[in-house]
Amino acid sequence: MSERLPKILVVDDEPNNLRVYERILAPLNLDIVKAGSGLKALAVAHKHDFFLILMDVQMPGMDGFETASLILDHPKTSHIPVIFITAFARDETFEFKGYMNGAVDYLVKPINDEILKSKAGVFLELYKERLRLDKAFKTKKKAEEELKVHKENLEEIVKARTQELQHSIEHLLTTQDKLVKVEKMASLGRLVSGVAHELNTPIGICVTAASFLEEETCRISEHLQDESLSAEDLTSFCESSIQGSEMLLSNLSRATNLIKKFKLVAVDVSTEELSNLNVIAHIDEIIIEILPALDLTHHQITIEGDKGIVVETYPETLKQVLKELLLNSITHAFEEDIKGHVMIKVEKVDERVRLTFRDDGCGIEADTLAMVFEPFFTTRRGSGASGLGLYIVFNLATHVLKGEVICNSTLGKGTEVIITFPIEHSY
After folding, report:
1. DSSP code at position 175
2. Per-residue model confidence as pLDDT tens digits over 212-252
């Protein structure tokens, strides 16, 4: 669709003058609407959107002043600029009357072509600029309305998404709480099952040994009553009694040690007092004390780090942690008759102590590494390992020392346990 031409209204009762205006304004590419009287001008003015009216003043019937006044009094056409055209010389009284009736300018006949074309061109540019502003305003208005609708929709979407998210979070928290409870019950079940399994073997052996001793004692008692007891029977009974007693004592001792380990799992420090101690010096004392009992004489133990670090902590707890770590290395890291190397390093990191325990043993497989702190998990069940060593380390380090524990390992290159705990103990 071609763009509509801007409209100009030319009012003059002389047809020749109308043709002259048409010729002069032709270069401006306008839609020129002509009216031969004031009445026709009034009728046409309300039908189109004119950017300018050229109004002849001297017309029969209704002159230009009256016509312009009526046009500009109407709300629909009050914005149209009017240029009066007169054959009389300009005087102040005449001009004042024109301006009072809404004129924006005067032209005196004979018309100067360039002046008329120039003035019409100015009002044409003003009209085009008004159209551009109107278009921009409508575009802005439409954009504001669309933005308002979009904002309202967005608010509804955000509200709905927020509710969905809130429900999801509530569901997640409920599920998490259930999972924690289930895991607690499962851990308790594994702990009880492990305790029962570990104690069942030595106690079962004790029951068997006691039953055997009871049978042997009854047999000897019968021989003694019927006076048929021989020296051979008595010797056999003594040997059996000694073997049974040794079996009882051995397995009762094993059960006692297991119960001591189980007590460590409970993390009871009510009888231990906090002390200020030099970490390196305390580790030296621990190694000297437990070295003979753990059969570490053929392994190399290196202690390094800041010798000036003093902490407030539980000495016996730290001793038990190191003992369990050393036992773990002896049991799992080093094969029999292998001379291993254990390094213990102490560092200060901000207001915390980082204790690194590293061995150069066989290392731990990736699948196994994730389970090393689980209670009763062990890869040496048949070799007397209870699977509580690192579990005790984890409990004591986190609950008593108020620290953190991580374990790193590379298969074939060794294992590293890092314990970080505060210098000043927090309750």
Report:
1. H
2. 888 888 888 888 888 787 878 778 888 888 888 888 888 78
Domain contains 403? yes
Residue pair 295/360 in contact (Cβ under 8 Å)? The answer is no
Edge-to-edge strand order for the sheet containing 414-422?
Answer: 300-305, 341-349, 352-359, 414-422, 404-410
Task: Find the domain containing 65 and state its range.
Answer: 7-111
Please indicate, yes or no, if residue 247 is contained in any of the structural domains.
no
At residue 345, the pLDDT reads 93
SS3 57: coil
User: What are the tens digits of pLDDT across the range 246-262?
Assistant: 888 887 877 777 776 66
- Spell out the residues 6+ positions from residue 340 whose beta carbon is closer than 8 angstroms to its own: 299, 300, 329, 333, 334, 359, 360, 361
Q: Are 237 and 216 in contact (CB under 8 A)?
A: yes
The Cα angle at residue 376 between residues 374 and 381, in degrees rounded to 5: 130
Last residue of a domain, one of 111, 138, 161: 111
- What angle (nearest 5°) sits at the alpha carbon of residue 108, between those of residues 106 and 113? 100
Residue 400 contacts residue 288 (beta carbons within 8 Å) = no
SS3 category, 296? coil
> Would residue 217 count as lying in a domain?
no
- Of 111, 146, 177, the domain-final residue: 111
With CA atoms as reference, report the closest residue to 263 among 390, 372, 392.
Answer: 392
**Do the Cβ atoms of 404 and 349 come closer than 8 Å?**
no
Q: Which two tokens stand for residue 234?
A: 């008595």
Rounded distance between C-alpha atoms, residue 353 and residue 247, angstroms: 46
Q: How far apart are CA 5 and CA 19, in angstroms?
A: 19
Q: Residue 89 domain-assigned?
A: yes
247-252, Cβ contacts within 8 angstroms, sequence gap of 24 or more: 247/205, 247/206, 247/209, 248/206, 248/209, 248/210, 248/213, 251/201, 251/202, 251/203, 251/205, 251/206, 251/209, 252/202, 252/206
Please check whether residue 262 is in contact with residue 268, taking contact to mean a CB–CB distance below 8 angstroms.
no
Dump strand ranges (E) for 155-281.
Answer: 275-278
pTM: 0.47
**What are the residues whose beta carbons fall under 8 Å from the beta carbon of 282, sequence distance 6 or more?**
315, 318, 319
Is-contact 405 419, C-beta < 8 A? yes
**Could you report the per-residue pLDDT of 30-58, keeping only the tens digit for each?**
889 998 888 898 888 888 888 888 888 88
Provide the number of structural domains found in the chain. 2
